[in-house]
Amino acid sequence: MNHRSEGNRVVSFFHHFLQIIRDYIFNRLETPRESYRHRIYNDLNKLYEYIRKGDVVLVEGRSEMSTIIKLFSKSHWSHVAFYVGDKLIKEDHPFRDRYLDEFGSDANHLVVEAFTGKGVIASPLRKYRDYNIRVCRPYGILPKDLKTVIEKVISNLGKHYDEQNIIDIALMLLPFRLNPFKRHAVNACLGKCNDFQVICSGMIAQSFQHIGYPIVPAFKTSGEEDKDFQKNPFGSELIMRHFSQIMPRDFDLSPNFQIIKFNIIETGEFDYKSLHWRPKIE
Fold first, then answer.
1. How many domains does the chain have?
2. What sign does the dihedral 171-172-173-175 (CA atoms) show?
């Protein structure tokens, strides 16, 4: 065996060892924390009634990883899932029986999401009943385009999670003096940049960008504003931000995603006068 082959084996072993360490750390960070403040009760029946296929579900997670993401993104939202409803148990879906066996009646209300250690999977929406969540709906999207977005998200099932993407986002958000790397351009790819690894927010953002639907685009700086606000409410020419830079908070901040208040406002039956308050203690 020559020295080059031996050297390649050493490098390969070293990279494999680092990957094992990284996987161990990420798995530990995904362990749920005991302390979690659930701010409002989620009525599942109302959620099922008002949520639609193609809606984005923002989640305030419970894990150490979620806490880290919330800290560096300065947002409550650490995870995002994509609602596909009963799409995966339609007659023509190849894994219909698998999801019905695994989830039973909950297979009528599934989300597609990405996790470290698990990759892209389908899960019942019910799992987030006791989490703080927010439902965001793309406003004005054409039905045919929404269908394309749904199919695009579903096509990611089985892909691996891109831990490097999360690390790169965290580095990008560090204060300038603490960041040892150059600032990334808005169209720069973060992470492994291949077709086999994704993160939760990037996977969903890429699917919307595929049909030209904006999440939080960058604005092209120029001396003139676009006066035709009906056609371009953003006010200037847009630059598509690379999907790998999109975070869960961006769907909340986006001006073109509606917030669906399924617990109260969507029902139109809220009467604050009928609420029962605990008497004040003097």
1. 1
2. positive
